[in-house]
Amino acid sequence: MQTIKLRNKTLQVPIIQGGMGVGVSLGNLAGHVAKCGGMGVISTAHTGYRCDDFWQNFLEDNLTEIKNEIHKAKEIAGGNGMVGINVMVALRYYDQMVKAAIEGGADAIISGAGIPLELPAIVGDADIAIAPIVSSGKSARVICQSWKKKHDRLPDFIVVEGSQAGGHLGFQESVLENIENIDFDAILCGVIDSKKPYEEKYTKKIPVAAAGGIFNRQDIDHVLSLGADAVQIASRFVVTKECDASDAYKRAYIEAGKGNIQIVKSPVGMPGRAVRNAFIRQVEQHKQGITGCYQCLEKCNPKEVPYCITQALIHAVKGELEQGLIFCGENVSRIHEMTTVPELMRELTQG
Questions:
Q1: pTM of the prediction?
Q2: Helix 137-151 to helix 184-202 angle, to the nearest 10 degrees?
Q3: Tell me: the pLDDT tens digits for 281-320?
Q4: What is the pLDDT of residue 271?
Q5: C-alpha–C-alpha distance, residues 335 and 220, integer Å
Q6: Selection from 46, 138, 137 nearest residue 100 by Cα
Q7: What is the CA radius of gyration of the chain?
Q8: Given Cys at both, which of 20, 36, 215, 237 links 345, Cβ 3.0 to 4.6 Å?
Q9: Sheet containing 261-265: order of strands
Q10: Would you call 311 exposed, middle or buried from its count of C-beta atoms within 10 A (0-12, 13-18, 19+)?
Q11: Are strands 261-265 and 39-43 parallel, antiparallel or unpaired?
């Protein structure tokens, strides 16, 4: 496994820990991944949920805690690896989250749950790597074309997320019902092919990270053999001692069987993959009462959505699982025991 150049920094180990919210990947997890030479990623999905006045000042708390968690991660990393931020395009305060990440000193911004066409404009001249999350070669081509034409900038890297990923997915629900028909290898190669003309024309290397269903060294070697430069892995980092989620959340991963992983409808407007639990069964039966709004999603109408995703994810990360939404990847049933970030990184890099 080789080092890769991402803008003006070098990633010693080409492993990106996927951003997971609410509160699953914060400064502690991200910092320890970076300490091992990879890229640790903090989720900006309600980073400030633990603040005492969160309900009254959720935006201010989120922006403050994004910076605090970056500082925490950087201190743990001790100059190793990179610390990134994951920002969903679907967030109402998207631009402010991006600017907070820059002010906090993040090394990279990864953006998905929508097409981040305006990310270069928000970043401006800041010395920070930016990367879109895509699920097709077409999306990668549209972003490269738009960014170059409108902002004279190309992605510093691209994350290609397949259908086996956790959380929100860039596929239609009908397509996900027949997941065995989705050829991730073809998607990955399509993205690699789509960015080559821009690399050649502008003499800029655009590394590609494969994500979704990457579980072990064998999977890593396979996508690298197809032309990927790095991988992004999320679910496996949940069941580490350094992960910021509660122990109950981690146990839910360990105890999850393949039969109770399902696709759910999210208020974000995208399908998502989660552990089937009491909360999901309740949502299937009737709409959950929403007593307040965090104004987190640009297109969310509290009167219409089946539940408040913010409240559901906060319940989950705190360990209140009967009221919580537990996002996960397709391979979560293969995780059977707790580990540490250094142990997992050794396994992934050494086999």
A1: 0.94
A2: 20
A3: 988 887 766 666 666 666 666 667 778 888 899 999 999 9
A4: 83
A5: 17
A6: 46
A7: 19
A8: 36
A9: 167-168, 271-275, 261-265
A10: buried
A11: unpaired
H helices of the chain, in order, are: 27-35, 58-77, 94-104, 119-123, 137-151, 173-176, 184-202, 217-225, 235-238, 247-255, 278-285, 309-318, 341-350
Distances in Å between the Cα of 47 and the Cα atoms of 43, 69, 118, 314 are: 7, 8, 22, 10
At residue 164, the pLDDT reads: 87
Query: 312 forms bridges with which residues in the sheet?
Result: none
Query: How far apart are the C-alpha atoms of 240 and 341, rounded to whole Å?
Result: 6
With 0-12 CB in 10 A as exposed, 13-18 as middle and 19+ as buried, what is 258? Answer: exposed
pLDDT at position 49 is: 94
Amino acid 175: pLDDT: 61
Please tell me the predicted confidence (pLDDT) of residue 307: 82
CB 283 within 8 A of CB 307: yes
> Residues of the chain whose pLDDT is less than 70?
171-178, 180-181, 268, 288-303, 351
Q: Which tokens go with 1?
A: 């496994």
CA separation for the pair 216, 233 (Å, rounded): 10
Nearest alpha-carbon partner for 233 in 18, 14, 34:
18
- 5-24 pLDDT, tens digit per residue, is 999 899 999 999 999 999 99
Whether residue 22 is preceded by a cis peptide bond, meaning omega within 30 degrees of 0, is yes
